[in-house]
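Bench notes, afternoon.
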Amino acid sequence: MFLFYAAVRLFAPKQILESGRARGKSTLILAHCFPEARIVSVEFDRNSENAAAAEDKLRPFRNVELLYGDSREILPQRLQTGDAILIDGPKDFRALRLALDLLRTGKPCTVFIHDFPRGSRQRKFLERNWATAFFGDDLLFQQFQSLDENRDPRQNAHRGFGVFACLPADLPASYRTLRIKLAFAEMLGF
């Protein structure tokens, strides 16, 4: 989240769209770090045990709007010029399709996608086809990776989940070309 903050704050977005909220940890950080921005957070399942926990945690924040439903339908409707986007669900290639569809509009300043570990199929796709994409585990950011060490209780905190991919606003090829390459990569498993 530090990387998101550092990369996005210069754009001073008036709105941040978040897809996938779970218990609202990232949403809480966004609300604190961007108090002047509207945080629109979409979670798919209103009936999950996480929904109530997130609602309780985020109730005090007037700049947070909690929505439920399919972010692939909701985010395009809410998208405004200059928005920053954080996708933590859907995952894998579905997240890339959502990011590409949103970037196609020319409105977002950037899109961050969660869970792009080294060696994953979705990461390999970006490394081959999106030269301007960068990742939270790049050497450039190594000095800041220790910020996550104390909050991550897993035995192997460096397994790669939690790594953000950042997609700058400009598409590296035409939308159609990228969608075709994405479909082939997903279908063929690379």
